[in-house]
Amino acid sequence: MLTISTGNNAVAAAVRQAIPAVVAAYPITPQTEIVEQIANYVTNGSLKSKYIPVESEHSAMAACIGASITGIRTFTATSSHGLLYMHEMVNWAAGARLPIVMANVNRALGPGWNVWAEHTDSLQARDTGWLQVYVATVQEAYDATIMAFRIAEDRRVYLPVMINLDGFSLSHITQQLEESEIGDFIPPLMLDHAIDTKAPAGYGCMTPSTDYFRIRYDIERSMRDSVAVIRETEDAFATKFGRKYSWTENYRCEDAEVLVLSMGTLGKEAEVAVDILRDEGVKAGAMRVRWIRPFPELDLGDRELVVIDRNYSFGFGGILASSIRAKTGRQCYNVIAGIGGQEVTYNDIAGFIRNRRIGEETWFGVDA
Amino acid sequence: MFEIRLHSRGGQGGVTAAKLMALAAFRDGKYATAAPFYGAERRGAPIVSFIRIDDKPIKIYSQIHNPDLVVVLDPSIIDLVNVFDGLKPDGKVLINATEVPAKAAGYKVSLVDLTGIALKINLIVAGSPILNTPVIGALAKMGLFSRESASAAIKEMFSDERNYQAALMAFEELV
Description:
The complex is a heterodimer of chains A (368) and B (175).
Chain A: E1 2-6, H1 7-18, E2 22-25, H2 33-44, E3 50-53, H3 57-68, E4 74-79, H4 80-85, H5 87-95, E5 101-106, H6 120-123, E6 131-134, H7 138-153, E7 161-166, E8 174-178, H8 209-241, E9 248-251, E10 258-262, H9 265-279, E11 284-289, E12 291-293, E13 304-309, H10 319-328, E14 333-336, H11 346-354, E15 361-363
Parallel strand pairs in A: 2-3, 2-4, 4-5, 5-7, 6-7, 10-11, 10-13, 13-14, 14-15
Antiparallel strand pairs in A: 1-8, 6-12, 9-11
Helix pairs in contact in A: 1-2, 1-7, 3-5, 7-8, 9-11
Chain B: E1 2-9, H1 14-27, E2 31-37, E3 46-54, E4 69-72, E5 92-96, E6 108-112, H2 114-120, E7 124-125, E8 128-129, H3 132-141, H4 147-157, H5 161-173
Parallel strand pairs in B: 1-4, 4-5, 5-6
Antiparallel strand pairs in B: 1-3, 2-3, 7-8
């Protein structure tokens, strides 16, 4: 069915297709309309889930953990400070190898009090063991949410997946959306390590270093195995629904001499900048990084790199640029832009590319 | 691409109006995006929404700086905000008013009394006249989207017949 939707409602519509047995969420600020819409679905009977409104994001994730460990499908959504508040449980979910799916609406952290788009919230959770994907359109928010359940619940992965969408610029924009009947695209969840609720038992939970070390190693091994699962899932999705996704979305990259890399909606805006530069005779291309965990193998060749970071790791640098440097050994021009919802237009991005100074970092609108 | 900037006050239905515009354009077979700009939301505060309509997918998420059309749901905003900022030289302005505000002199202004229409048929919610559905009728008259698509969009989002009736009155009233 072809319709129009906000990013928030697209995630909710995808969750309705995935039919999680439990949705637990804190329903108040900084929550979004994602769980409001899911609550509507549950109330009007179009989604047969147990919806648990809890008193905090920490409890939301704890409730998802408690439900998931019995072997049932779970979902929650949050944003910015909510994600930070559940951080302890975010780690626990991955450590317990639970295929929980969560949508996070990327918003800046206070103070100063700011509600707009920024990726620092979810990137602070990048070392937790969650898979993380960043989307740029309402359709992609829908599609990525559906795929997230299949990826998380795959026996080779058994790790939680976070879908990230830019606050307001994507969560609240209205675009067209094709909703699909997903049929058997997400197989029933078979969680090998689910607890047996019919024979409840508790054991001493202290984990000695030797075992703990092994458990952590297993997380990393599954994270690496998830590469193949993501590829398979995105291929299967393309075959079934005709919409193809990959590690990056590449726009006019084939013969490009300079690439602009970014995440989220800025990546789409960058495509418009590339068109402008191409008309000026500059061979530019745009590469939008979708998955940040697992971090993709990037085909960068010997092209000059401009990396836009809508985030920052204080005392170090933009997180995407740092990751690219670390992974590929390549230098880049790192532009810190869009933080706290800072307005960044396609003309601005074209300017970043025109005025690139490889090896340097610039804070857009602040640095001279 | 056709770009519209919509000025309203919190509680007047500007966000819904933007969504209705996108839906009507979409029903015309176009691509459309509607992006409300959120600040500290409160009733009565000036708010702005950005609507884009095109024949191909729209990749722009930033604000509209050079609109083809400016829509003003509350004329008192004109004294607070430069609603004409960046308006294209041949750009148009649609204002919910019965006479052209002084600051609008020199622009290609169309007037429609949306408030009067809403009051006339008692289309009032929580004490405020509803402007978001009648404005769709006026915009259809201006050729932004077809009358059929405007009607379909309203009926898709609202079951109260008065919304459609108000849009029809605005359609007929706008010269």
